[in-house]
Amino acid sequence: MATFLYRIGRFSYRRRWIVLGLWVLLLALAGAGAATMSGKMSNDFSIPGTEAQRAIDQLTERFPEAHAGGAGARVVFVAPEGKTVADPAVQAGIGRVVGALKGAPQVARVVDPYTAKSISQDGRYAFAQVTYGVQGMELTDADRDALQDAAALGRDAGLTVEIGGDALRANPKTGVVEVIGIAVAALVLIITLGSLVSAGLPLLTAVVGIGIGLAGVAIAARFADINSNSLILALMLGLAVGIDYALFIVSRFRHELLVRKDGAEAAGRAVGTAGSAVVFAGLTVIIALAALAIVGVPLLAGLGLSAAATVAVAVLVAITLLPALLGFTGERLVKGRLFGHATPDPESDSGPVPMGERWARFVVRFRWPVLIVAVAALGVLAIPAADLRLGLPDDGMQATDTTQRKAYDIVSTGFGPGLNGPLVVVAELPAGADPQAAVGQLVTRLSGMDNVLYAAPNEMSGDGRTALLAVIPKTGPNDVATADLVHTIREQKAAITAGTGATIAVTGVTALAIDVSTRLDEALLPYLAVVVGLAFLLLLLVFRSVLVPLKATLGFLLSLAATFGAVVAVFQWGWLGDVFGVHETGPIMSMLPVLLIGILFGLAMDYQVFLVTRMREDFVHGAAARDAVVTGFRHGARVVTAAAIIMISVFGGFVFSGETLIQSIGFALAFGVLVDAFVVRMTIVPALMSLLGRAAWWLPGWLSRILPNVDVEGEKLHRAEEPVREPVAVGV
């Protein structure tokens, strides 16, 4: 592997114009393809094979006029003090709003409160239900403005009018906070590498990688159903790993250039050594992300495959385009000056003892106390994870000053919290049955169940075979009692449908959340087996050790537990919510645990590969096992620290996104990288490596003979350097 990548690095450096031209052409083609062939992103959420999804499919088939897959809005009215919605002036104001809604763009259906009798018992509250013919992703700002303008007509008439539903959810976009994350990454690069030229290369190659990756995702949306959040996740990961991978290779190139004074040779060795680590680190991320496709949730599959493709592009850019660009910069990377000082070499063996080496010596000397304290600290951070509750976000988790949250609270006050998340029961009636009698029996039995405020028939299909019933719980959609009601209805189907011959299925927000959690629980062990198993084999090849991959996996589990604990503390308990822009607490997004496992596992293995390969490189080149821990740290700690800070900065920028899923992913990844890089990889790992000594690199003889030697540490390059056939001046 090292020799193969060495040749790629030398070729790219020497044939820089050819390589650069090919990447520019590819970027242009990707941009043109995205401009002419990109498809529409979706915000559709489906979980095939579950009861809730079957019910939704039935609704779509039997009630096409209801536009079950379209965006929806609930416009809530409150009459002025002392009046009711029956007052002629109030009724006229509501009528103007409803009339404007019916004429609004993309609106397929409006059910006014007087027709639907959606009026509270005291007569002060009412709501109109608006259904769009397209998904929320396809609504434009003008469509949302029309919705707001209609509500303004009611406010002008003296009514309180608020709007809830997914129609107001704008498409996810990047903003100032994400730019701040990139700015912090640039600052870290300048400080670490010591010059604007060195710092600019990782940023430039990362931009090229995400440009091609995002264009590919946009084109793929033409042929497959890809969620709108896929672009944000691909951007987040592509930017973070793209900068990090380039940072490792640039840092190694500068070191080799200072030692060998030959640009082509330095590029070859940088790609052959640091590039090998990049390839295997990238493969672990790609495996973890692509394996999300086996979970059985299309949304997760789209997110994972989109991000995996972008990471793959980042790896290719790092090992080909980057050495080509290094050919244009040459020795300017080592002749720059920062604040009047000569450019430092983060991997040099000379000069003052760096902080990384001092830390490594401290950890090795006090390995038992350090190990105990680090593991105990992670254990404390993990305690809140025991209270993890999963669910789907709703308007009740919006900021209190938003119209969605105000509408949610008004509905809770006027109609009860259950109306914010009604259960939908789809009843299939047998041929020849009396529809009215059968539906009447079903409504009576559902109404008599515990925690049901009321049940009512909603619609009947034209053939009289399918009925749509609304069951309004006494509790909100994310309340445990509402979930218990869904389980009870499903468990007592036989008693509920007795004598009617009907079959029923339950859907709705709460039912969907239950089915998602069940599906993910069922898929978790197979997913972990695939991801951890393949990654273990990959690390076995990289390190030629049994204990190092095992230790890496156990360390990841510690990081994961601590990260879940932090997510629960912030997003569910509300700790430091104001700091992180969490307006309201609530259940954690159902898909976050599996998604976090996939992404964080890959990123955790990044730092494992980058840091421990330097230890193995020194060990293979003759250093004692414990000495290799210290020298490996000296060579790699500064760059790994910079890479971790860059990732934390990039992910941290997304914490302040308005999209709940992206916000929670950004926080979880930033915190997870913080814990994994600094506590696990840079504290627990060296402590364990020093405890194990030579045993850390033990590999049974029979397994050593079977495993191919991929030579990530570049031992073959060290033993026999490939002769340079064409002397190339540095910087030419």
Automatic annotation (TrEMBL):
GO molecular function, one term: transmembrane transporter activity
Domain of life: Bacteria
GO CC terms: plasma membrane
Domain SSD per the UniProt entry, residue ranges: 237-328, 526-691
Compartment annotation: Cell membrane
Keywords tagged on the record: Cell membrane, Membrane, Transmembrane, Transmembrane helix
Residues that span the membrane, as ranges: 176-196, 203-224, 230-250, 271-301, 307-328, 368-386, 524-543, 555-576, 588-607, 636-656, 662-684
Membrane topology: Multi-pass membrane protein
Family: Belongs to the resistance-nodulation-cell division (RND) (TC 2.A.6) family. MmpL subfamily.
UniProt name for this protein: Membrane protein
Source species: Catellatospora citrea
